[in-house]
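notes to self, project folder thing:

trying the whole complex as one job this time. last attempt i did each chain seperately and stitching them together was a nightmare. two parts in total, labels are on each line so i dont mix them up again. if this works i'll redo the older ones the same way
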Amino acid sequence: MTMRQTSVALLACVVLVPVGRGAQEDRVTQLAREVGTKGWIVYAARGENGTWDLFLTRPDGSARRNITNTPEYEEGGPRFSPDGKQLLYRRFAKGTVIHHDLWGFQGNLMIAAPDGSNPVQIGGDRELPWASWSPDGKQIACLTQKGIQIVDLATKKTVRELPRKGIYQQLFWSPDGQWFCGVANAQIMWTVVRMHAQTGELNIVHEFQSCTPDWFPDSQHIIYPCRPAGQNGYGFTQLWMSDGDGKEARMIYGEDGCHIYGGALSPDGQYVLFTRCPDDGGGSEKSGAPICVMRMADAPAIAGPSLELRKVHPEAKEAVVLQLVEGWEPYWTYAEIGVEK
Amino acid sequence: MKIVPSLVLLSVALFAVSCAEKTDTTVDPNVTTRGSIEVTARLEEIRGDLIDDPMYDYAHVMKYRVTQVHRGKVDKDVIYVGHYNPAEPRSSVADARVQEIGGNVKQFRVGDVHRMALEVPIDDHFMGGIINKYFGEVNDPIYWAIWTDKAAK
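result (full assembly):
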């Protein structure tokens, strides 16, 4: 990245630290430089035409580019294939309100090149819900009323099926192919669970107001938002992680006044993406929320005054967070995907 | 002169009987045709608070005592029924997640009698959060309420 590109990148970002805290600003600037050449982030955001489009950006906010630009459709939920050579997402009819819990059931599954070119619709309206990639990118796992279906993309046939065992949304296949995670009714609703992809055996990862889980690259840990009990009033959603057995749950990032969603890891697990939204749900019904980048080494971290949260997590560090543009459901690849480097 | 009041009383009584019969004979076709099971049952217990949060949809499992089975097979007198977003009147509860649902019950109150069109098990018909305060205590299948009308006690 050139000096000019770096400057543009830093202008495109908001440094999420109080005014006058020069050292903290320097740390954010350093973070921006650190991640600037580490692949690409894809996310959904409102385009100039007002509809949801897909965008690519460098992780420091530079080289932002609308890769769908479809005034006649809404698009969201993008995920690169593990090798970074394909991109799946859902396309919705223009004007569709993208529901923060139901989006995986809405619209059509699309698969395109990672730069958004050559989009192909797979299946019909509302078919192949919650599709997520297999490790080799040749199959997808879908969450249907009947169960979890493994679909071969070449033949479009369901090659295997498992009972869903109470999982009702946000199913994601682990990078090593051994597990699924999802949101389920277990002892209580809004429980993040892990299911063995072969045996169907299910275990609780985290109970109580936990959702939208996703995998760490090691397939051993899961990231998820959680709105813990014991907060004043409704409370705020924080970003948490746990091992797959659910034995070592801990907060990654929290901020009183913001609900944290969209948790996703960089491919090496060194950085974490999330969105911070004043409203619960992540903002898909409106225009999303600011996308943020943080080092995992800086976790647990807290931003803002967050007096109550700091009492619960006295060990948490002051957050060093690079804030990018508004968006929803960001996803990260280290692959170079044929657009401006 | 006493004949007139008597005739009036008789007319009122006949009218009342007529109305009562009419209530029985004009059952909403939605409740008699939807789902594979139809029962009249008394709502015995609502465990936990009914959450009214516009951000999140869920079903709440309630305990019923069945007084009459109209359609389908129900093996037990006590059944457990999941109602979708129960803080909402049944007439306006249908939404993007659950479209085929309704009824005339405005509020769920213990002691009320409901005529319901049902399916079972709930997981075959509903994908969403379920508040089941009987989890681990009752192993019976949970019914899914499609149509819920108020019935005479």
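what i see at first glance: The two ends of chain B are 38 Å apart (CA to CA).
need to look closer tmrw
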